Amino acid sequence: MMKGYWVAHVDVDDMDTYNTYIAANAEPFAAYGARFLTRGGKREVKEGAARARTVVIEFPSYEDALACYESEAYQKAKALRAPVSMGDLVIIQGYDG
Q1: What pLDDT is stored for residue 43 in this prediction?
Q2: Rounded to the nearest 5 degrees, what angle is found at the Cα of 23, between the Cα atoms of 18 and 25?
Q3: How far is residue 92's CA from residue 58's CA, in Å, rounded to a whole number?
Q4: What is the pLDDT of residues 37-78, one digit of tens each?
Q5: Are 23 and 6 in contact (CB under 8 A)?
Q6: In this structure, are residues 86 and 44 in contact, taking their beta carbons and an 8 Å threshold?
Q7: How far is it, in rounded angstroms, from Cα 19 to Cα 21?
Q8: SS3 for 54?
């Protein structure tokens, strides 16, 4: 089964409120086996443009990645994030070569 990934690029306007989203997303991420590969660390944009924060989350499968996003628990967490951030999110299937 191919792993699934969330690749997000986010600008945050209010980090205190955004932290409530981080706390709220812990439950659905745990339920769907999510593992953070990067979560807003040091980086350099070498080509094109990017938002201030990059997050990559790995899931056991592409189906788990989709189901987590569509879950009621994640949608409640997302509602906390939406007013204080702008972002781009791609859910993508892994590659096994």
Answers
A1: 92
A2: 95
A3: 10
A4: 999 889 999 999 999 999 999 999 999 999 999 999 999 999
A5: no
A6: no
A7: 5
A8: strand
